[in-house]
Amino acid sequence: MNTPQDTNLCTFDTLKRKVALQNQGEDIALLDTAYELANQAYRGRTVAGGRPLLQHCLNVACILAEYPLDPQTIAAGLLHELLPSNRGTAELKKLLGDELFEMLELLSSLNVLRFSKDEKEQAQQLRQMFIAMARKVHTIVVKLANRLEIMRHLDLFPEQEREAYALETMEIFAPLAHRLGLSQMKSEIEDLAFKWTSPAEYAYLRDSVQALATEREETLQLSIREIKKLCRDNGVDIHITGRQKHYYSMYKKMLRQGIQVSELFDILAVRIIVETEEQCYRVLSLLHTNWTPVPGTFDDYIQEPKDNGYQSLHTVVVGPNKLPVEAQIRTWEMHQTAEYGVAAHWAYKEEVGGGRVADTAATWIRRVVDHGSETTDPRHFLEQITLDPFEDKVFVLTPKGRVVTLPKGATPVDAAYRIHTEIGHRCIGAMVNGRIATLDTPLHNGDVIEIKTSKTPRPSRDWLQFVRSAGARQKIRTWFKQSNRVENIAQGKEMLQHELDRAGLRRKDLIDRIGLQDSLKITNLKTENDLYAAIGCGDINVEGVVNRIRKKYRDLLQVEERDKPVTRAAPSVRRKKKDVIVDGLSDVLVNFSKCCCPLPGDAIVGQVSSGKGIYIHRANCETLKKTPKEKSPLVSVQWGGEAFKSAYLAHIVIHSLNSAEILHQIMAAVSGAKMQISNMQSKVLKDLSRLTNLWVEVTDAGQAADIVSRINRLDDVISAQRKI
User: Fold this and answer.
1) Are 660 and 636 within one domain?
2) CA atoms 628, 633, 636, 642: torsion sign
3) Is the pTM of this model over 0.85?
4) Of 437, 480, 531, 581, which is most buried by a Cβ count within 10 Å?
5) Residue 257 structural domain
């Protein structure tokens, strides 16, 4: 994610160049006037972290300049902190013009808003914002740009303010940006808020995605080249790029589908842009014809656009190296709408209009305002604003009829914390629709939820494994963080050891050397006790720490593997004479060597053994290479026609971590290939890794190669190969 930091601050010259590109042929002299005013009015004023207010406003204006907005809206971003008292009202209005002055008046009224934690007050403040939006939607785009600039520098704010800003951004501003179709802005502010509301999940996902993306970059570039060639050869001109990855959307997908990072399709993702709608379907046909589509992954948002106007074709195909590649296919006009939302359709110097997306947004804004004027309960107004068909929310009721809005999949614990922090801390049970329910029970629309509480607060760390709302997760973590550090250290150490045991990582000297030190560097913690405490209170995901240790351990063992030959005899197998043809000889006894277990399809050679006939070896057999040729001469042999009709034993040697699930995973991989295991022998080595010898019934070398490939894809497998 590319977010400007203090190393590349926006300057006024940069701003003017950006605005000139977006507004070719228009008079942008208004920006000079606005900058002069801002320079005078903001002199000596600062924002969080001691940054000059002028620089903050320049950054906001530069964010707006990335969108196809008119100079008045950009100038409003530059002047959004300007108070009317800085100049006489009439003079300022004459200097800036009626339109810009009206925007500044609206922004001035919105600048005093600071969203309360109380739902009733928050709803009243949101109503004020939407009334301003109904008058001029551009003002809210300025507010969104302002919020994005704040989130980019949130590390400069006090810790308590960081949490409040992040939760407010996730619950109000991100859904608002999505409703207006501002996908770039929405994705970035969501990711930045996610970083602070769920730091452990964010760090784990960021590290995992970056590692996978690095591993798969070659495949991504190969996919892009092949798609370019495929379309060019079929007369379709395309623009194709790798698609930017957004951590929060991936996180939601993982929760929704119950999958791991490695199972996400959009780690490898491309965006294809064409000229016409007809070409969108042409490219889709080419992809589905030449690559295998993944069932259930095709969505046609061209014929059925999303409520915010988004249009594209989505599909997932099996690309190079048998890895899934997600593709979005759209026209340039659809791309403008997807990236810039209502801003892509505004006619300069007009109110909302000029396109279906803008009309949809305007209708939604007016409907929300009308709803707000009809209801006597401001909280209903809040629900109307945050309701979003793509955010997957559920609405449950308390016994007194209060509506509680929660993310889809939320549990009674989420509801308890949403009602009140202390109710969450004291939660010990729940009744859903009059029946006792476990605390991890998923809630559904219309459920009546009653929370049972104790006299003393007793949150459980286990709750962090199933709560769905950022607010609940943050409050649970804060409670444990503020409790006894000694208890957190002990709990964290126990949690880490438990996960290490499950992963088969128990060599403390190795773990200390390659695992914990690496985790300390990544998390900016100073001591192991700091790490244990952070795990214990939930600030750091213990699985993320173990995954880093596992990777280091696996990498080290892979290096050692290169110099460590594996030797074990395979069981003897007798074959029919017709399986192998021996050149120049007939009616000869044929034996299959047990050192390399040759299979039909392998290159083979015969070794003459006095009194025992011919032994068949793989041509690259290590044992054969060490046998003197004069004692056992070689003869030319080839597979007979009957060979491919028989069953053979493939000997596979597997070196893996000693995790609890590894043997089950190996058997599942073989079963997935529709093969049967004849024999399995496994033992733990001195370095606590595991060595497994596997004999599988196959018909040829191709089937054996498929099984080896499946086993090598398992996370805990260091190496798997046929015995040579």
Assistant:
1) no
2) negative
3) no
4) 531
5) 201-343
